What we know:
The protein has helices at about 15-20, 25-35, 65-80, 85-100, 105-125, 130-135, 150-155, 200-205, 210-220, 220-235, and strands at about 10-15, 35-40, 45-50, 65, 135-140, 145, 155-160, 165-170, 180, 190. It is α+β, with helices and mostly antiparallel strands. It has one domain (about 10-190). Helix 1 crosses helix 2 (about 25-35), helix 3 packs antiparallel against helix 7 (about 150-155) and helix 4 packs across helix 5. The N and C termini lie far apart (about 45 Å). The mean pLDDT is about 90.
Amino acid sequence: MTDPDLRFDVPLYSLAEAARYLAVPTSTFTSWAKGYVRRSPDRRPVAGAAVLTTVAGGSGLSVPFISLAEGMVLAAIRRTGVPMQRIRPALIALQETLEIEHALASERLYSDGAEVLYDFAVSHAGSRAAAPAKELVVLRSRQRVFTEVVDDYLKRIEYGTDGYARLLHLPGYRRQQVVADPRRSFGQPMFVTGAAKVTDVIDRFQAGESLPGLAADFGVPIEDLEDALRVASKRAA
C-alpha cells in the first residue's frame, strides 16, 4: 500500500478556507467543488458539474491541495470576466486533450493550455463556449499565450518533478511572499521568509503587538507583514 500523496489525497481545507485564500466568494468555490443547480420560476433548471475534486475528511475539511491549485486557475479565469458556466466545456476539452487528471494544476496547462483553448475555440466556432475560451488567449511573438491575468496567476504556481503543483504563491499579495505548501503547516498560508503562519502573526498584531516586534519575533520583513495585513483587512471588509 502506497503512502497518500499530501497534495492529492489529504483534505487540508474547508470550502470556506479555500475560498478565502483564493479571494473568491464561498458560494463560488462551492459551486466549483460541488457543482450547482439553479432554478427559476419560468425557466428550466440550469446545472453545472463540479470541476474540482473533493475528498472526505473530518472537521469539515474536504479540499485537498491539488484542488486549491486548480481553484487558483479558476479564480484567474473569474477575474477575466469570462462566465464560468460558458467556459466549462472548454475546460473539459482541455483535460481530455492533455489526457491527464487535474489538468488545471498541471505544468502542461502553462506550456500547452493556451494553444488547446484556442484550437477549441476555432473548432467550435459559433458555439456558446467558443468565444469565452478565445477570450483567455492572446497572440504574442507568434504564439498563443494566456491573457495577462491568467498568466500572472499561473506564474504563482511552482511545480514538482511530476509536473503537478507543489506550492502556491497565493493571490492578492503584491510581494508574493505568502505561500500554501502542503508539506508545511498543513498547507496553511505562511510567509516565505521566517516560515510563520499568517494567522499567527495577524492574531498577535490584532492583540496589540507592534510590527517591528512581530518582525523581530517571527523573522518576517515588515514589508511582508504590511502586505499580509492589507490583504486580511480587505477580505474582512
